[in-house]
């Protein structure tokens, strides 16, 4: 498997509880390298655009309001098989279903306030990275 990049968000429930460092440590322990990182606060329009694929889902409004409720940390993670590896470290969407030791098992509050986002495929990773970062900000 080649070296890949994936896009990650440390979500408001986690930044609010001061868990950024503990979550980054999980990525690094799994062999993922942080090649870009910034703390930002989304506008509602930005959250709606980012989660546009979910616009018809019943949880869309709640999700967007949650994502703008506090600052978030957006990052690009690089490593061997990074997309799958990151999703493994995150654990299942619903913390009740997440495996022991995963970020969501240890830190998530609910299926919505689940501490992290990670891209689900190479195409979405490329789109999501480009949404938040310019080429100059990616330092491999
Ligand atoms: P993510 O995109 O954030 O990495 O998470 P995921 O692939 O595991 O989950 P996805 O199905 O893409 O859903 C995106 C985010 O929407 C929120 N959600 N809320 N209330 C609900 O039933 C519900 N379902 C999903 C979560 O914050 C989820 O991560
Ligand atoms: Mg998803």
UniProtKB/TrEMBL annotation:
UniProt cross-references to NCBIfam families, sorted A to Z: PRK00668.1
Record CDD domains: NDPk_I
Function: Major role in the synthesis of nucleoside triphosphates other than ATP. The ATP gamma phosphate is transferred to the NDP beta phosphate via a ping-pong mechanism, using a phosphorylated active-site intermediate.
Name of the protein in question: Nucleoside diphosphate kinase
Positions of the catalytic residues: 117
Annotated ATP binding sites: 11, 59, 87, 93, 104, 114
Record-linked SUPFAM superfamilies: Nucleoside diphosphate kinase, NDK
Gene Ontology terms, MF aspect: ATP binding; metal ion binding; nucleoside diphosphate kinase activity
Gene Ontology annotations of biological process type: CTP biosynthetic process; GTP biosynthetic process; UTP biosynthetic process
Subunit structure: Homotetramer.
Family: Belongs to the NDK family.
Protein EC: 2.7.4.6
């Amino acid at each position: 498997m080649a070296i890949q990049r994936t896009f990650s968000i440390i979500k408001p429930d986690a930044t609010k509880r001061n868990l950024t460092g503990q979550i980054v440590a999980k990525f690094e322990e799994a062999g993922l390298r942080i090649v870009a990182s910034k703390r930002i606060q989304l506008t509602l329009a930005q959250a709606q655009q980012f989660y546009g694929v979910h616009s018809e889902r019943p949880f869309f409004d709640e999700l967007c309001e949650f994502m703008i409720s506090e600052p978030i940390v957006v990052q690009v993670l690089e490593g061997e098989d990074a997309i799958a590896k990151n999703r493994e470290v995150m654990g299942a969407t619903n913390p009740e279903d997440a495996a022991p030791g995963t970020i969501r098992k240890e830190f998530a509050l609910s299926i919505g306030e689940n501490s992290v986002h990670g891209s689900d495929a190479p195409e979405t990773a490329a789109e999501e990275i480009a949404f938040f970062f310019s080429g100059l900000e990616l330092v491999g």
